[in-house]
């Protein structure tokens, strides 16, 4: 970070902490008192500010609403045993945010605005960071195009914002998932690697169909043949096959997940062999049937490590091993959580302690 920002702060008159039940925190529905905003106009970023959380005035003609120039990230902050707050791997999220911005022809956000805006906001709302086990403060950086006219071109103006929401676990059980062979999430040369709003919009209808069929999530396959595994809903996918940790390689259709990268590093440090490669549906089904595939889980900032209990393919359910017996994924999940919550040494330098 090259300079210290002059961030204007306007605080709420009355906090909502006193009327918030921290034992009931559905994901993404309870927001803290404040939010960070900054505007891109005339080729530069201006007016960094922390303001009370609430509606944002906007023209109904803004580009984001009509042409989909909108990106976001997902980060978490944790309460450490000494009461301080640590943000996990925000530097990697910052780099990915700008990778998404570049692909969507949007202005890139300077590091000092991304990082200092986040730190300032969380320091102001630090009492919102939960102290309970398995709880965290979810951080949502977002940017959207704001040109107030109708015209198919990259916007000249943008708003960058950061919202924060205290939350518990995203999933509370092993998932029953379906391998999707009709709809696609992403295709070669597209924007599947970017965290852009449209990626998630195109997944919603297939997900609703799957929910009606009794599934918790989808396993996406490649758009061309539907023969290769890509992602699990909104998270990366990982399997243990013959004692090796196997995951689809990052490509234009697969998100370069921060949790994915973290798990790979932890596994390698623990002496577990890791393979990042194309992974076929056939290999997964045969692995389950032969017993070679012993573990499967989704990995993401919200999901963290979420076990997959059952995989459905072409109408047939394949049941995996009891999640309680899964040595590799459970071991990695514990080490990851211990580092995040300050219960184990952070030998990788992933925690950014801000207060």
Uncertain ranges: none
Structural class: alpha+beta
CATH superfamily of the largest domain: D-amino Acid Aminotransferase, subunit A, domain 2
Tell me the CATH architecture of the largest domain: Alpha-Beta Barrel
Beta strand count = 18
Percent helix among the residues? 10-25%
Domain module count: 2
| SS strand fraction | 25-35%
Q: What is the radius of gyration? A: 21 Å
Specify the number of helices.
7
CATH T-level fold name of the largest domain? D-amino Acid Aminotransferase, Chain A, domain 2
Distance between the termini: 18 Å
Please tell me what the overall shape is.
globular
The helix/strand series, from N terminus to C terminus, equals EEEHEEEHHEEEHEEEEHEHEEEHE
Q: In words, what does this structure look like?
A:
With 355 residues, the protein is α+β, with helices and mostly antiparallel strands. The protein has two domains: 160 residues, Aminotransferase class 4, branched-chain amino acid transferase, N-terminal domain (D-amino Acid Aminotransferase, Chain A, domain 1); 166 residues, D-amino Acid Aminotransferase, subunit A, domain 2 (D-amino Acid Aminotransferase, Chain A, domain 2), CATH 3.20.10.10. Helices cover 24% and strands 30% of the residues. It is built from seven helices and 18 strands. Strands 1, 2, 3, 4, 5, 6, 7, 8 and 18 form a nine-stranded mixed β-sheet that branches. Strand 16 and strand 17 form a beta hairpin. Helix 5 crosses helix 7. It starts with 7 loop residues before the first strand and ends with a strand. The model has no long low-confidence stretch (mean pLDDT 95).
